[in-house]
């Protein structure tokens, strides 16, 4: 209780009047109130008077001497602090009420009449008098008096007016006769006030109930308050409405209506003759106002609006200059009410129109927003919300509008945002979002509308925006730039700067340069040069039609040598060459030869499309010429050549999927079919091999199985295909087809077998592996070689692991005769080849790491592992799964890190194991890091195992490294690592640290 | 006596000699020779006979040499010596064969020691003899070299030649003339067989001989233009091997005359010389060398002027085609010649003819894979440089010729191709935009060649160079402003890449190939980029640190009011001293910045990191990190326009990567957010906290005292209430006006984030934004606890208050956080994941407003941080549709309430609502387009009154200010729904009547 912040009692000011002085001098109150700044104020007086006269029925025990205490305290008691008032009503003990004064008014009250002692009566009169002085302004009373005081005041008012003691709330069936001490007019007034208060109280109900409760004495009052608040309001409403409708004159109290008691004079009650008559308009205005408030409160908005309107009309009906006694409506409040009800005479604000439009399915929204762009009244965020709402409702189909509306609203918002300097809700995605629509015109239109109204500062903002626009609009920027120039906003320097930046975006047009010439410049008029130029064109052109034209032209120059020999490097594959050479010397011969030669040349340069189109032209040309029997043959051969080129293209551009793989596969099958069917003419071995490999890459294995194995280069693809088919059949980790295995193994013999088959040595294997593209084929090859490596190396520490590994035999006969070195090299090469096609294959990355580790290349091994881990978790967005990092990999990483001298990294990695191997941990921790990328304290934030931290703390303590020890301790102290946390938190915190560490590794090893 | 004896001897001699014809053995007896030699001294009268005898001896020797006919016909080397060494007959006849040697020795000594008169005599005789013998015994035509080899193997001939040689050395000037005369006469007589002798002996007075030969040739040429000049050419050719200088001098001399003809003969000079070149490559080479040496512009004029004269020569007129190939035969200076011609080609048609013909031939030869001398010339180091220079020429012909030559040589020497590409890429084409044409044509390669090298290694080569350049800073001092090679290269690569984009411009390079090649070089490009950007980032950091230090110092001195002027003065002094160095650094950084822009442009042009290319993970990470770094570097550009341009570049870059790969998006976003919050926050208006350096701790403060000041314990580092450091006063706080994020940069930053998040293919995909949201939670929230979405009971905030305040502090420190939240708020339901942040903001605001209640008389400033924070939080909630209307308008009116009321509203309307309606994606409806949206207009979504009524009631009490809002928030909608309500004016009338 001894609160130092509590203000100490301040000595009283000299002019402060104490409450009991008013009891002593009946005129004192008037004098006091007439002062400019009475002290205590009118409100305070009311409070004091009321707190001196609690409920008549109340019984309370006063402590002796409390009166005295009270006297001393109350004046300083400036606020409604009931606790202090508590001890006040000492004089109102039952005995006192019975004996002391008996100041009953001369009008005999009924049996229930005023049973008040004089002091109580006097105080009540004073209290009401003050209230009348305040003109019964309920607003003011409400604001300044605690609710309970208000109720007391109301009770006193009713009590005095009716002349009999009443309890608040009035009972439902209240029909109090007015006792002699009462007065009909006064009672009517009181009842009006009562009902008004009843309604008003509803509005502050919550607050009233929550208001600080008086500590003990007012217990009952509070109960009363509850009752009062729970009184049904309908009767009151009806009463007030009746009152409004009635034409009966209405009187209100005059200050002089209340006559204070004198000590010497019992008096004859209140002077009810002195009462004001007020106009019905005034009464109605006030009542309607109150009703409107109540309706608003209870959400009866229609009624509220009517009431508010009525209030307003009534108020208007009162002639200006009239003094109002009863009606305390302030103009601003009335206006507020009218506005709230939407019937204000003021012009509709833009915001209101905007809201209206929202409710009306966005009618006129565009024009409103356009207006707002200039006036800037609607909060920007609301506009953005509308934009998104429109998007949502169009998207869900609620709003049947085109996207155009959305676009326009968005554009207008973008323009408005220019002047919302730094708004956090600005639309940053306008250009991207609407890039498919014509997003610029609405923007420019909106801008142009704005431009004349811009202040200087706003122009700067506008400039920024325009720059942004210009940079966004790649293609249309020129046009926009013209428009922008028209605005005249930019200085010449700035324009130049812009131009410079835009230059980057526009494609350069080389004029008058070598690049713009189609051939070399040849101005010489000599025929030799002309012919030479023609030949050159023939050599360089990439189009069959041009070839045709040029050949005709060249033919006319009577050349000395056959035209097909113009370029000696044109070469034609064998069967075709014989066919062509067998042709009579003719255009067709030249044409065929040249096209075939050129196609081959183009294909080697990677220009597959032109090559294929040339061959196609040639094919149709041949068909057209109908040259005897060879046409069929020729066409067939050309088709195969086309296929060959397309396979090459497909393998080269594997990831871009340039061709329809399905049809390509089909044609490969056909081609191989020719071999199988034993046709007289079979495709070249090259083509057969390509087809086989292509089918392998398309994972169409069955057609390969039926091929003749003896055809040398087909051996490997066939063996692979057979393996795949067996794998499919077995569906399990069974040892399968040893064909491929044997074949592969034979490649690594130290001394290659002679003549056993057409295949021999590493080079043919590489030639085959080079053309592998499909992931599973890669996988198979890798696993096979990996297994060979494992067997030959025979060192379980450096075993490689990969999928498919279990397919292969576990031993090799006579391992000495195989070359481990070439196995290693081939595997290394194959892995990097495979990874260049599928760089995100985690198992290969890990295997490469294993291999590097086996070789002793720790850093590169670590790089591979980290790469695998980072790739497998999408840069640590996904939790580390078992398939990405199992104990096996982690242990290898630990080994790597330790080998690299990064012992702390190794330590942290130990936590990744399923069960932390503290042996390794402690061993690593006690080692000194020998790598500048590693340090004891660099990775504390990645440790989540508290045992580990404890060990570290201990270690630091032993070494006497105090500050580091403190750091480690503070790490241990973090809430997250508390051992009592639930599993989820533990998991989460471990996860966070894991990814933190992984990112650190990635930054070290991959960047 | 003596005389008699002499006579006897003479008689014997004559007899022997006259009989000797039948028997060479007799003649070659050494005695006889001695006798003859004796006569030479004692009987001058017999000199003729003796010499005749000697001639006879020589002839015998020659006969002997010739007879076996064992010489190799090609080389002229007699096979005998080698193969038939053991031949008996040969051995037998050896003395005969060697007989002349005696004579030679004797005569030689005579020449050396005898009176000088002997020399001409012997010389003349020998010449005559040699000529005669040569003519007589030459069976068939041989080349000069072959003849020389052949004859010099013969000892007699060799001896004679030695003799002549010895004599020539003794000759006086006039005698020499005479000798030459004789020689030439002999030459005239036996033009076919004497040439080798001339060639051989010409070495003694080369210039004279050469000149004479030429003169003599020209005479013959003038007489008959069809004459064969083989001998002359042969001699010259032979002599050139040792006496090229003299030949050149002769040519020079003749050309001088030829160009300024005085004698009628002079007119023929040029045609003659040209004709001569047809006979021999060496002559041609020499002539060209001379021509190139003396060539000037003026000379060209002369040539043009005189050409008609020369052309009158019929032979010359007909020989042009052969001339055109001449250049192919050149070992050196061929390229120079061609380029010279090319320079003039515009002016003279004949130059073009020459060029075209030559080039055509050249290319034909290359196609046929033939070797020719010019290739060697082209492969010379010097030629390479010259050609490179010509590639940059403004003369199109020259440029074209250079390019064609380079292409030709490249087909045989791929390394030259790569070097050329590398060189041409390094050059600046700002002055002469045509220059790039050469590069483009060169990249197009030589068509028709199957194995022409690809250009990728060229790119790799230049990039490798530049990497070195960038890494090892400024090996040479460069004047500021000059574009570096790195700059040039990237700008050229850029042009290339952009050209391919506009398809039709460059038919020579397949766009796809170029793109592929550049993408293959991506690791190298990134390496350079890495270097450049990292240096710039370091620079930013340094600048920022300095700026903060300055600012902090100023603030502190303002705070403590004891400005140390002296110290300041010293500081400024230092500053000025440093400036020149700083200027240089600035300049370097400006260059670096320009380079960075260019590289990014290139990356954009080649679409690096797009889905179509396969990239290894490290490369993806690197590209992503660098892109973000570049973005921040771009923010430090000087002008608005440049900042915007740089940012736009990085947007394109970021967007491409992020929509292609998820991992790239993860990295980009993380880097963007991390850097904005932790590393480059100062660019985005982060509240700057200056780390006091340890040294400023007053010395008198003992460690023990300091330890007392800071509470130790596990949580000592987690206390939020750090408003200063004990003993050093309050932390200087920057005025609130500076606490805002620079709007322009903020916008740029948001766009960068958006570029990473936006998925152009799936426009409503909010994955990226959700990622940002989660990232914010990870980075801003202090630990993993209580990071869940639900709002707990408001009571529970006491538990989390400390971390809530830390989160709030983060928002104060980094205002950009608001903007980030604002961005994700627009992409529902991403903001849900940041629930913990919203919760923290809401909880702290709530508490602070409650706290204000104690001191209720202190008015709330409109721009109070608390009020702003509350407003922003309410806006965020509204924007993200986490609170429904009418609560969405709360931010508009919140400032009209008092603190207690605000606290009430926050609790009743916001906290309680969110507690009951957990901010989670489940709140949102996903439509067919994948758009998350909460339709708040439907009846279902209406807010239950318990969350709204407190607000409504509070507002009702402030109708005078909030009237319109009240209407809009509550009534308008209601009335709109219950549309049936009659016109209020109707009721008004009734009242009126009353």
Keywords, please?
heterodimer; A: 1007 residues; mainly alpha; two-stranded antiparallel sheet; B: 994 residues; 46 helices
Largest β-sheet summary of chain B: 2 strands, antiparallel
N- to C-terminal distance of chain B:
195 Å
Largest interface, by Cβ-Cβ below 8 angstroms: which chains and how many residues each?
A-B, 142 and 154 residues
Quote the beta fraction of chain A: under 5%
Average pLDDT of chain A, rounded to a whole number, is: 78
Protein name (chain A): Integrator complex subunit 8
Organism (chain A): Drosophila melanogaster (Fruit fly)
Keywords (chain A): Chromosome, Nucleus
Subcellular location (chain A): Nucleus; Chromosome
Can you describe this structure?
The complex is a heterodimer of chains A (1007) and B (994). With 1007 residues, chain A is an all-alpha fold. Among the domains of chain A are: 259 residues, no CATH class; 66 residues; 154 residues. Chain A is built from 47 helices and two strands. A two-stranded antiparallel sheet of chain A has the order 1-2. In chain A, α13 packs antiparallel against α14, α29 packs antiparallel against α30 and α39 runs antiparallel to α40. The longest helix of chain A is centred in the middle third of the chain and has 23 residues. The two termini of chain A are 65 Å apart. In chain A, 41% of the residues are buried. Chain B is mainly alpha-helical and 994 residues long. Among the domains of chain B are: 204 residues; 172 residues, no CATH class. Chain B is 69% helix and 1% strand. In chain B, strands 1-2 form a two-stranded antiparallel sheet. Chains A and B meet through α14, α15, α16, α17 and α19 of A and α21, α24, α26, α28 and α32 of B.
Short description:
The complex is a heterodimer of chains A (1007) and B (994). Chain A has 1007 residues and is mostly helical.
């Amino acid at each position: 209780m001894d609160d130092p912040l509590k203000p100490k009692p301040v000595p009283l000011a000299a002019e402060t009047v104490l409450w009991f002085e008013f009891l002593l001098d009946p005129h004192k109150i008037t004098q006091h109130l007439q002062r400019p700044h009475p002290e205590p104020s009118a409100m305070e007086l009311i409070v004091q008077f009321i707190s001196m006269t609690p409920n008549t029925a109340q019984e309370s025990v006063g402590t002796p001497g409390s009166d005295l205490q009270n006297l001393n305290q109350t004046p300083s008691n400036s606020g409604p602090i009931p606790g202090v008032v508590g001890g006040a009503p000492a004089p109102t003990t039952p005995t006192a009420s019975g004996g002391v004064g008996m100041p009953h008014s001369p009008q005999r009250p009924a049996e229930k009449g005023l049973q008040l002692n004089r002091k109580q009566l006097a105080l009540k009169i004073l209290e009401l008098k003050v209230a009348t002085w305040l003109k019964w302004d309920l607003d003011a009373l409400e604001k300044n008096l605690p609710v309970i005081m208000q109720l007391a005041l109301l009770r006193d008012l009713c009590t005095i007016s009716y002349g009999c003691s009443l309890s608040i709330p009035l009972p439902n069936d209240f029909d109090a006769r007015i006792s002699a001490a009462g007065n009909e007019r006064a009672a009517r007034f009181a009842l009006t006030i009562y009902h008004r208060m009843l309604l008003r109280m509803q509005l502050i109900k919550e607050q009233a109930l929550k208001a600080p409760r008086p500590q003990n004495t007012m217990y009952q009052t509070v109960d009363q308050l509850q009752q009062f608040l729970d009184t049904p309001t309908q009767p009151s409403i009806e009463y007030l409405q009746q009152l409004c409708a009635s034409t009966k004159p209405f009187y209100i109290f005059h200050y002089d209506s209340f006559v204070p008691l004198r000590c010497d004079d019992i008096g004859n009650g209140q002077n009810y003759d002195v009462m004001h008559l007020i106009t019905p308009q005034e009464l109605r205005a006030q009542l309607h106002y109150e009703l409107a408030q109540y309706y608003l409160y209870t959400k009866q908005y229609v009624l509220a609006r009517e009431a508010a309107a009525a209030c307003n009309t009534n108020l208007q009906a009162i002639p200006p200059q009239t003094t109002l006694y009863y009606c305390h409506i302030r103009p601003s409040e009335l206006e507020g009410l009218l506005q709230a009800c939407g019937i204000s005479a003021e012009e509709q604000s833009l915001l209101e129109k905007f809201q209206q439009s929202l409710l009306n399915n966005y009618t006129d929204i565009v024009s409103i927003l356009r207006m707002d762009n200039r006036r800037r009244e609607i909060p920007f965020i609301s506009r953005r919300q509308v934009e998104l709402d429109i998007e949502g409702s169009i998207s869900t189909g609620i709003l049947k509008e085109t996207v155009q509306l959305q676009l326009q609203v968005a554009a207008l918002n973008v323009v408005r945002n220019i002047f919302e300097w730094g708004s956090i809700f600005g639309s940053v995605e306008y250009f991207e979002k609407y890039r498919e629509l014509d997003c610029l015109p609405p923007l420019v239109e909106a801008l142009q509308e704005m431009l004349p109204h811009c202040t200087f500062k706003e122009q700067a903002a506008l400039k920024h925006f325009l720059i942004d626009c210009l940079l966004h609009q790649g293609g249309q920027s020129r046009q926009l730039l013209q428009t922008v120039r028209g605005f005249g906003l930019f200085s010449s320097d700035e324009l130049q700067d812009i131009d410079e930046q835009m230059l980057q975006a526009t494609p350069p047009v080389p004029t008058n340069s070598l690049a713009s010439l189609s051939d070399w410049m040849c101005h010489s008029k000599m025929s030799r040069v002309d012919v030479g130029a023609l030949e050159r064109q023939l050599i360089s052109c990439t189009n069959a039609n041009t070839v045709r034209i040029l050949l005709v032209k060249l033919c006319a120059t009577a050349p000395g040598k056959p035209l097909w020999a113009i370029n000696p490097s044109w070469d034609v594959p064998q069967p075709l060459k014989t066919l062509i050479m067998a042709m009579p010397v003719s255009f067709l011969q030249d044409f065929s030869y040249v096209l075939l030669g050129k196609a081959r040349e183009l294909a080697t340069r990677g220009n597959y499309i032109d090559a294929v189109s040339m061959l196609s032209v040639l094919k149709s040309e041949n068909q057209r010429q109908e040259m005897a029997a060879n046409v069929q043959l020729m066409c067939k051969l050309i088709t195969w050549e086309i296929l060959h080129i397309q396979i090459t293209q497909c393998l080269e551009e594997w990831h871009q999927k340039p061709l329809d793989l399905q049809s390509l596969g089909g044609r490969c099958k056909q081609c191989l079919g020719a071999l199988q069917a034993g046709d007289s003419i079979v495709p070249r071995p090259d083509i057969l091999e390509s087809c086989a490999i292509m089918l392998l890459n398309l994972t169409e294995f069955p057609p390969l199985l039926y091929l003749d194995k003896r055809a040398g280069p087909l051996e490997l693809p066939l063996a692979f295909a057979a393996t795949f088919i067996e794998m499919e059949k077995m569906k399990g980790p069974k040892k399968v087809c040893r064909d491929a295995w044997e074949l592969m193994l034979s490649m690594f013999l130290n001394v290659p077998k002679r003549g056993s088959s057409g295949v021999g040595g590493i080079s043919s294997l590489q030639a085959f592996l080079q053309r592998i593209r499909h992931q599973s084929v890669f996988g198979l090859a890798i696993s096979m070689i990996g297994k060979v490596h494992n067997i030959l190396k025979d060192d379980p520490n450096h075993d490689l692991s990969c999928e498919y590994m279990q397919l292969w035999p576990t031993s090799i006969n006579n391992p000495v005769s195989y070359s481990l070195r070439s196995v290693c090299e081939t595997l290394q090469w194959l892995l990097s080849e495979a990874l260049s096609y599928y760089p995100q294959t985690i198992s290969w990355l890990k295997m490469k790491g294993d291999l590097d580790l086996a070789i002793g290349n720790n850093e590169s091994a670590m790089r591979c592992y980290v790469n695998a881990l980072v790739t497998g978790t999408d840069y640590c967005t996904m939790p580390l799964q078992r398939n990405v990092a199992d104990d096996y990999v982690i242990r290898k990483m630990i080994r790597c890190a330790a080998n690299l001298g990064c012992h702390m990294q190794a330590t942290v990695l130990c936590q990744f194991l399923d069960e932390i191997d503290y042996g390794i941990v402690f061993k690593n921790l006690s080692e000194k890091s020998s790598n500048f990328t590693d340090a004891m304290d660099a990775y504390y934030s990645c440790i989540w195992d508290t045992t580990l931290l404890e060990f570290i703390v201990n270690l630091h303590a032993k070494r006497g490294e105090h500050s580091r020890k403190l750091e480690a301790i503070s790490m241990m102290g973090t809430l997250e690592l508390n051992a009592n946390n639930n599993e989820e938190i533990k998991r989460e915190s471990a996860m966070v640290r894991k990814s933190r560490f992984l990112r650190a590794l990635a930054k070290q090893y991959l960047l | 006596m003596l005389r008699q004896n002499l006579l006897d001897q003479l008689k014997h001699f004559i007899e022997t000699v006259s009989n000797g014809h039948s028997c060479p053995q007799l003649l070659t007896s050494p005695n006889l020779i001695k006798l003859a030699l004796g006569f030479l001294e004692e009987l001058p009268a017999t000199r003729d006979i003796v010499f005749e005898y000697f001639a006879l001896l020589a002839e015998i020797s020659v006969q002997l040499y010739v007879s076996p006919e064992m010489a190799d016909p090609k080389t002229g080397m007699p096979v005998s010596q080698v193969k038939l060494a053991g031949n008996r007959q040969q051995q037998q006849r050896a003395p005969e064969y060697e007989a002349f040697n005696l004579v030679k020795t004797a005569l030689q000594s005579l020449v050396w020691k005898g009176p000088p008169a002997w020399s001409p005599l012997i010389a003349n005789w020998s010449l005559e003899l040699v000529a005669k013998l040569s003519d007589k015994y030459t069976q068939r035509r041989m080349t000069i070299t072959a003849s020389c080899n052949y004859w010099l193997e013969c000892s007699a001939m060799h001896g004679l030649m030695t003799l002549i040689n010895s004599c020539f050395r003794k000759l006086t000037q006039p005698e020499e003339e005479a000798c030459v005369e004789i020689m030439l006469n002999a030459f005239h007589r036996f033009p076919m067989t004497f040439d080798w002798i001339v060639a051989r002996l010409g070495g003694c007075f080369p210039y004279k001989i050469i000149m004479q030969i030429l003169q003599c040739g020209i005479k013959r040429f003038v007489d008959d233009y069809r004459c064969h000049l083989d001998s002359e050419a042969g001699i010259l050719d032979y002599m050139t091997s040792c006496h090229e200088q003299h030949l050149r001098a002769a040519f020079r001399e003749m050309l001088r005359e030829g160009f300024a003809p005085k004698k009628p003969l002079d007119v023929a000079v040029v045609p003659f010389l040209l004709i001569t070149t047809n006979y021999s490559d060496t002559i041609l080479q020499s002539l060209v060398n001379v021509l190139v040496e003396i060539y000037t512009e003026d000379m060209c004029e002369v040539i043009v002027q005189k050409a008609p004269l020369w052309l009158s020569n019929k032979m010359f007129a007909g020989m042009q085609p052969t001339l055109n190939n001449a250049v192919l035969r050149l070992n050196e200076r061929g390229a120079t010649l061609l380029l010279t011609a090319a320079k003039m080609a515009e002016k003279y048609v004949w130059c073009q003819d020459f060029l075209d013909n030559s080039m055509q031939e050249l290319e034909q030869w290359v196609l046929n894979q033939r070797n020719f001398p010019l290739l060697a010339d082209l492969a010379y180091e010097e030629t390479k440089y010259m050609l490179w220079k010509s590639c940059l020429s403004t003369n199109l012909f020259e440029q074209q010729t250079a390019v064609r030559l380079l292409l030709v040589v490249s087909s045989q020497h791929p390394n030259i191709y790569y070097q050329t590409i590398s060189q041409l890429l390094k050059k600046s084409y700002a002055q002469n935009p045509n220059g790039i044409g050469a590069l483009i044509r060169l990249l197009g390669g030589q068509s028709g060649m199957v194995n022409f090298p690809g250009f990728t290694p060229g790119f790799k080569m230049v990039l490798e160079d530049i990497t070195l350049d960038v890494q090892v800073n400024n090996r040479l001092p460069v004047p500021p402003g000059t574009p570096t090679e790195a700059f040039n290269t990237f700008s050229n690569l850029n042009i290339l890449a952009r050209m391919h984009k506009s398809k039709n411009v460059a038919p020579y390079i397949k766009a796809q190939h170029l793109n592929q090649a550049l993408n293959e070089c991506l690791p190298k490009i990134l390496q350079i980029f890495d270097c450049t950007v990292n240096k710039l980032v370091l620079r930013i950091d340094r600048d920022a640190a300095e700026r903060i230090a300055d600012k902090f110092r100023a603030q502190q001195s303002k705070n403590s009011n004891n400005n140390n002027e002296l110290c300041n003065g010293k500081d400024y002094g230092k500053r000025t001293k440093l400036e020149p160095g700083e200027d240089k650094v600035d300049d370097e950084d400006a260059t670096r910045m320009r380079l960075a822009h260019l590289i990014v442009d290139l990356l954009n042009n080649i679409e690096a990191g797009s889905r179509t290319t396969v990239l290894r993970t490290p490369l993806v990470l690197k590209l992503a990190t660098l892109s973000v770094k570049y973005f921040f570097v771009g923010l430090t550009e000087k002008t608005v326009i440049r900042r915007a341009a740089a940012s736009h570049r990085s947007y394109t870059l970021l967007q491409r990567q992020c929509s292609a790969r998820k991992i790239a998006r993860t990295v980009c976003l993380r880097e963007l957010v991390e850097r904005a919050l932790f590393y480059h926050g100062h660019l985005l208006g982060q509240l700057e906290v200056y780390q006091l350096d340890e040294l400023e701790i007053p010395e008198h403060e003992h460690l023990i005292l300091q330890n007392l000041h800071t509470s130790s314990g596990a949580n000592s580092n987690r206390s939020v209430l750090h408003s200063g450091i004990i003993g050093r006063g309050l932390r200087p706080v920057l005025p609130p006006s500076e606490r805002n994020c620079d709007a322009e940069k903020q916008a740029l930053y948001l766009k960068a984030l958006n570029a990473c998040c936006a998925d152009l293919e799936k426009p409503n995909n909010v994955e990226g934004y959700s990622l940002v949201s989660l990232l914010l939670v990870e980075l801003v929230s202090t630990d993993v606890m209580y990071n869940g979405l639900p709002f707990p009971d408001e009571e529970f905030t006491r538990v989390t208050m400390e971390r809530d305040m830390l989160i709030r502090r983060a928002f104060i420190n980094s205002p950009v956080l608001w903007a980030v939240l604002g961005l994700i708020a627009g992409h529902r339901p991403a903001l849900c994941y940041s629930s913990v942040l919203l919760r923290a903001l809401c909880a702290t605001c709530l508490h602070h407003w409650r706290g204000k209640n104690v001191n209720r008389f202190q008015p709330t400033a409109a721009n109070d941080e608390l009020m702003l924070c509350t407003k922003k939080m309410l806006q965020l909630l509204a924007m993200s549709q986490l609170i429904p209307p009418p609560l969405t308008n709360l931010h508009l009116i919140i400032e009209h309430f008092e603190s207690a009321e605000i606290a009430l509203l926050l609790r009743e309307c916001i906290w309680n609502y969110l507690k009951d309606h957990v901010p989670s994606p489940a709140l949102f409806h996903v439509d067919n387009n994948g758009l998350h949206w909460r339709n708040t207009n439907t009846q279902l979504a209406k807010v239950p009154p318990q969350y709204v009524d407190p607000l409504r009631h509070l507002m009702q009490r402030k109708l005078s200010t909030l009237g319109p809002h009240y209407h809009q928030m509550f009534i308008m909608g209601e009335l709109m729904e219950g549309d049936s309500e009659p016109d209020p004016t109707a009721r008004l009338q009734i009242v009126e009547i009353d």
